[in-house]
Amino acid sequence: MKRVVYTALACAAFLVMLTGTKKRSMREAGSIPKLTIPSTTGWTSNEVAGIRFLSPPNVTITRADGLSGLRFTFAGEPELMFGPIDLVQTRSYYLMDYLMYDAPDAVIALEERGSGDECRAAACTTQAIQGAPLCLDIRAQPTTHCVELVALVRSIQPL
User: Fold this and answer.
1) In the beta sheet, which residues pair with residue 7?
2) Would you kindly state where each structural domain of the chain is located, as residue ranges?
3) What is the 3-state secondary structure (H, E, C) of the chain?
């Protein structure tokens, strides 16, 4: 009987230890910074796969003949490619207080992580290019990558 009691106490102590780790408290409303989209002055002009766009210096572009093969890599982030994004659904996923930028063609939200805050940016062209809007989505640690992604997508024009 003592063995069962000691085992139960040991399990309870272990459970308390696991759940006793302190979580960071949620941010207060209004404490999330609001972002502005940077100017693209001085960015590199690119013409590839039937589109023209501007890219910041920290973006590597893997060129391709078609849009499906075109890749973008922000320094230190995974490779990005165009894909379908539902901006309304993306926006509704976040509480309004966590939106750092909100526009009809783009959304940037704060995501709190245990290892550090990230931003998530999703942006689409306002005009259809080759039959559909072109959209990019990124999760990044520096918010500069998120605002630069929105500016890059906004600069896209068909050739």
Assistant:
1) none
2) 26-158
3) CHHHHHHHHHHHHHHHHHHCCCCCCCCCCCCCCCCCCCCCCCCEEEEECCEEEEECCCEEEECCCCHHHCEEEECCCCCECCCCCCHHHHHHHCCHHHEEEEECCEEEEEECCCCCCEEEEEEECCCCECCECCEEEEEECCHHHHHHHHHHHHCCEEC
pLDDT digits (tens, 9 = 90+) for 62-110: 988 889 999 999 998 999 999 999 999 999 998 777 899 999 999 999 9
Q: How confident is the model at residue 33 (pLDDT cuts 50, 70, 90)?
A: confident
Topology at the third CATH level for domain 26-158? Protein Transport Mog1p; Chain A (3.40.1000)
